[in-house]
Amino acid sequence: xxxxxxxxxxxxxxxxxxxxxxxxxxxxxxxxxxxxxxxxxxxxxxxxxxxxxxxxxxxxxxxxxxxxxxxxxxxxxxxxxxxxxxxxxxxxxxxxxxxxxxxxxxxxxxxxxxxxxxxxxxxxxxxxxxxxxxxxxxxxxxxxxxxxxxxxxxxxxxxxxxxxxxxxxxxxxxxxxxxxxxxxxxxxxxxxxxxxxxxxxxxxxxxxxxxxxxxxxxxxxxxxxxxxxxxxxxxxxxxxxxxxxxxxxxxxxxxxxxxxxxxxxxxxxxxxxxxxxxxxxxxxxxx
Length: 287
Prior knowledge:
Helix 1 packs antiparallel against helix 2 (60-74) and helix 3 (76-85) packs across helix 5. The chain is α+β, with helices and mostly antiparallel strands. The protein has a five-stranded antiparallel β-sheet. It has a three-stranded antiparallel β-sheet with strand order 8-9-10, with no helix packed on it. Strand 3 (201-207) and strand 4 (210-215) form a beta hairpin. It has helices at 7-51, 60-74, 76-85, 93-127, 137-182, 226-235, 282-286, and strands spanning 184-189, 192-197, 201-207, 210-215, 218-222, 240-244, 247-250, 254-259, 265-269, 274-277. Helix content is 58%, strand content 19%. The chain has two domains: 7-173, no CATH class; 183-286, CATH 2.40.50.1020. The longest helix has 46 residues, at 137-182.
């Protein structure tokens, strides 16, 4: 028999797995974006050389941009580690922002040193002369720092978004498990997370990006959709039925259906609430 371990250990394992998935997906997005930029920039430089009838070799744009891309990707693990370890989130962002400011400087220094080392080595071997650039080393660093600071925080944004998506997936999975196992509906209402008995569900109405949900005598404005709420309710054993594009009801609370004369109906629930029913959903209601 396989020993699964304490529940909190399994939960920690799931959290770590989701975090690894978020970091992996962020890394793939960053690498893909950088490689796309590499191709676009190299082609653009090649076109400029051709239009200016320059004497530079065709390989120059690809090698020049390639050294920059290699340097950027070499620092990617550092960026992802700092973003994972010191997230810019409420409650900690001030302290962590100072750490990221230092991280930008370290990343820029790393990127410039790797890029310049590669260029000095490649230019001698491929082109037979030393690599040269206009301005001083400080000018070069300042020029690169501006670009790498933007890259650094763009990568942090990708990581934060990717981790957030994985967290939402975890929360959704937990909500569905709670519905099936404990017959409770998990709703995010503002800054609160509410777990309500599924059997007390009466009706729900779409309200923009939110849903007004009634459980017993209480009404809550939840950040969800009617479709997602319907799935949760059905998993919790509630006979939830969509009666209108904007309305969902508990069939067990239905007491009366009155035609309006235009194919639609007016539905009365046990608590006295009236709900519109659309002819588009009449077959579901009849079932």
